[in-house]
Amino acid sequence: MFRRATCLWRITAAWIFACAVAMFAETAVGDEQKIRHEMPRLGDAEMPARAAAVDALRLTNDPRASTIFQAYLDGNLYLWKEQLFLLGEPKGDAAPGGMVSLLDPLTAQVKRSAVPTAEVRKIKPSRRERKTIVTAILYLALYSTDLAERGAAAKKCGNSRNVIFVDPLSLLAKSDENLDIRDDAQESLWLIQLGDSRPDASQEHRLAAARGLGELCSARALPLLHQLTKELDSARIAGRAYEEAELDTYQQAVEKIESYQRFVHGGEYLFSGVSLGSVLILMALGLSITFGLMGVINMAHGELMMIGAYATYEVQQVFTNYLPEAAFNYYFIAALPVAFLAAAFAGFLIEYLVIRHLYGRPLDTLLATWGVSLILIQIVRVHYGNNIAVSNPTWLRGGVEIVQDVVLPYNRCFIIALCAACVMAIHALMKYTKFGLLVRATTQNRDTADSLGVNTRRFDGYTLALGGGIAGIAGYALTLIGGVTPDMGQNYIVDSFLVVVTGGVGEIFGAVWAGLGMGVINKMLEPVTGAVWGKVLILLFVVVFIQWRPAGLFPPKGRMADV
Q: Distance (Å, rounded) from C-alpha 157 to C-alpha 220?
């Protein structure tokens, strides 16, 4: 009995599927016949006939008709014996007296292999008709089987305010398989209904659209709602007739949308501040280590970041010029160790050639490293010019939308994750390795460490190389969100010193909290005060904070408190 029921179910399902396929095939054939019937009318000499053909092709709801429209716009359609074709060989306008092949506009298959050029006539829409055809292409994209194309069309239709999109958008909003497309279609549908200015337009639909857009917190509706509110408010002030309920509905929708947009902008500023703070942390980590160990103010630290950025560029050039195109996406992974090692080597050389001979002379060290920074800037400027381009790999382009209108870019997420990994690695290196033990011993009491056999001079070089390598990683990360220029380090060196001083000299987690705080505060102040005054206010805040806590957020403890 069970086998018989199962067999019957399979037969029924197969019959339903076969009927559906047959119906679809019949519909597709019918649409193709209608398309082929209407195509020649695009070459009619009368504009009303051409307009009727455009409408008829659009109403087939067959995305294949959009290929005809696109060829029509591009001037690639030719009329031969009252039929439309694409031109084959030779491509473009054939020479007079020559022969051309004609292709089917729907299938691109050759229909006529040799036709005299004199017998074919190119057809193109007039300037007035082009807008109608572009609208028809957008209309047909709503019926596309491609998810991305259909979604883009559903969102774009709302900006057109054209009522011809109401029916297909209503269909998408109710029955599309993709939830995002359904939401975009509903938003566009409400936008069209809200902006419908026809005399017979339904006020009830308009108010319902305003309420729906308000509940949806649609940023795209805000300009139109502001315009409608302003018109009704002007009528109220002038004493003209207006609907108070309509004005209240628009004002409530505007208030909801603006409230949500403030939340969105706050989230964007917070996230941008955290990513900027991550770069500052990477810069300050190296400074914190070197300044805490050696007491040296390295003004060339920003140029070590610049070296890391240019090392990333060089790796990109190697992958672009010498490796297959498919390998390009992996260049950014290979650039990480290269940027670290290049900047670390430069830091080691600076310590070996300059700083080592100036210990105990802090002012001379400051001036010397500042001179080194100027030399490095000029060398890079002479070799590379003033600006270069570093392209993000495809896996770091775009972003993820966690809630409506709040998009977290992949490149900034990568920077934050890289910063977190570097902080944990430095913490583990300093706390759980012999190298870290000797560095901490030298920091707490250099003379005692030297008397116990620690080669403090060598560790000075290693430490500056480590700090320079971290700065190189900062430059590597900065290529994702900023320009690569010879003086890019100058824009971050002052902020990095402020992070070190605020967080506490030699304190890794102090640099973390101070870097995050300064990055977030900077991004929060920029929209209100501007970039320049934002920097000024941050500097004043740091000055006041240091007056209150001279040792920073995390002051040294134990023996280090006396150093």
A: 12
Share of the chain above pLDDT 70, in %: 89
Q: Return the number of other C-beta atoms located less than 10 Å from residue 536's C-beta.
A: 12
Nearest Cα neighbor of 66 from 138, 3, 117, 148 is 138
Q: What is the pLDDT of residue 336?
A: 94
Phi-psi region of 121 (alpha: psi -120 to 50; beta: other; left: phi over 0): beta
Nearest in space to 473 (alpha carbons), one of 328, 307, 325:
307
Q: What is the mean pLDDT of residues 290-305?
A: 80
Which long-range contacts does 479-484 make (Cβ < 8 Å, 24+ apart)? 479/309, 479/312, 479/313, 479/390, 480/392, 480/396, 480/411, 480/412, 480/414, 480/415, 481/275, 481/411, 481/412, 481/415, 483/387, 484/309, 484/310, 484/312, 484/313, 484/387, 484/388, 484/389, 484/390
Cα of first residue to Cα of last residue in the chain, in angstroms, is 91
Half-sphere exposure of 445 (CA within 13 A, CB side): 9
Rounded CA separation 441/506 (Å): 13
Over residues 479-505, mean pLDDT = 83
State the Cα–Cα distance between residues 514 and 551, nearest whole angstrom.
13
Alpha carbon 212 to its chain's center: 28
Cα(244)–Cα(235) distance, integer angstroms: 11
Does residue 294 register a pLDDT over 80? no
Q: How far is residue 53's CA from residue 40's CA, in Å, rounded to a whole number?
A: 8
DSSP-derived letter for residue 420 is H
Q: Within 13 Å and on the Cβ side, how many CA atoms surround 157? A: 36
- Give the per-residue pLDDT at 415: 92
Q: Which residue matches tokens 């455009």? A: 54
Dihedral sign of CA atoms 471, 418, 414, 219 in order:
negative
Q: How many residues does the chain have?
A: 563
How many angstroms separate the CA atoms of 489 and 475, rounded? 8
Question: What are the sequence ranges of the domains in the chain?
Answer: 33-141, 146-242, 267-529
pLDDT at residue number 47: 85
State residue 345's pLDDT score: 94
Q: What one-letter code names the amino acid at 269?
A: Y
d(CA 400, CA 100): 50
pLDDT of residue 308: 94
Amino acid occupying residue 4 = R
Q: Strands 121-123, 77-80: parallel, antiparallel or unpaired by DSSP?
A: antiparallel
pLDDT tens, position by position, 137-180: 999 999 988 888 998 898 888 888 888 898 899 998 888 888 88
Q: Across the strands, what pairs with 122?
A: 78
Q: Within 10 A of 60 (CB to CB), how many other CB atoms are there?
A: 18
What pLDDT does 467 receive? 87
The CATH class that applies to domain 267-529 reads mainly alpha
More confident residue, 198 or 310: 310
pLDDT category at 337 given cuts 50, 70, 90 is very high
Phi then psi dihedrals of residue 399, to 5 deg: -165, 180
For range 281-306, the mean pLDDT:
81
In which element (H, E) is residue 53 found?
helix 47-58
Query: Average pLDDT, stretch 389-405?
Result: 83
